Amino acid sequence: MNMKIRTLMTGNIALLLLATVSLPAAEQMTIYAAKSGSKMRIEGTSNIHDWQVENPFISGSLEVGPGFPTEPGQAVTPGAVAAKAEVFIPVRSLKSIEKDGKPYSDKMDDIMWEHLREPANKRIVYRLTELKLKEAPKTKDAPYVFDAKGDLAVAGVTNKIAMAVNVLPLADKRLEITGSTTLKMTDFKVEPPAPKIALGLIKTGDEVKLIFKWMLAQRKLAAAASN
After folding, report:
1. What's the chain's average pLDDT?
2. Which CATH number characterizes residue 59's domain?
């Protein structure tokens, strides 16, 4: 009987120690959810004129560990930061626009969605796999510069991409994350559109530039715990 009691107590103590070690690690992760004010823009070229498409919202969430700046002017050390994120954009939210932001062409939108194979691939998805703080800002109002690596899925094809991102902590536990990268449509097996219109054949360039601003807000502890 004594041996059984001793074994049971030892097991319980081990479980308590494990819980004590694991709990703080879990609590150190900070979760952010996407908020309004985000925007992604894709810029490209053609033999007629340059073109651009935009969408008005970037969905998803970001989870970060210690070493990630959550407050303006926070002291941090350059290096790898524990982080994961999943970002997605509905393909049909992408709309062609004029340079002044006015809608350009519904026909062009249909052609774009067709080339992105929208019926089978409703979303463009990005998953963050690595985040390293490159440098801290020199002033309180400047952003923190990170090197980010992740997987980008477009039209059913996933490629690894690397890019610099700027993280600007704002008041009220909010973040503004901005960045840009250059991609080739053919890397995702997307044929550059060449629609026939009254003026002749438009040929678009393979290379496009993706520019984004992602707005996030820190989840409240109660909401984070319930998820």
Report:
1. 86
2. 2.40.128.110
Rg of the chain over Cα atoms, rounded to whole angstroms, equals 23
Percent of the chain with pLDDT over 90: 70
**Is there a domain that residue 177 lies in?**
yes
The one-letter code for the residue type at 136 is A
CA within 13 Å, CB half, 166: 14
Q: Which of 130, 22, 51, 38 is nearest to 84 (CA)?
A: 130
- Tens-digit pLDDT profile for residues 141-154: 899 999 999 999 99
- Please list the alpha-helical segments (H only) found in the chain: 2-27, 106-115, 221-226
Q: Is residue 101 part of a domain?
A: yes
Structural domain contains residue 51: yes
For residue range 42-85, list pLDDT tens digits in order.
999 988 889 999 999 999 999 999 889 999 989 999 999 999 99
Q: What is the pTM of this model?
A: 0.82
What is the count of structural domains for the chain? Answer: 1
Domain residue limits at 106: 29-226
Within 80-220, residue ranges assigned H as helices are 106-115
CA 152 – CA 149 distance, rounded (Å)? 10
- The 10 Å Cβ neighbour count of residue 21 is 9
Residue 48: inside a domain, yes or no?
A: yes
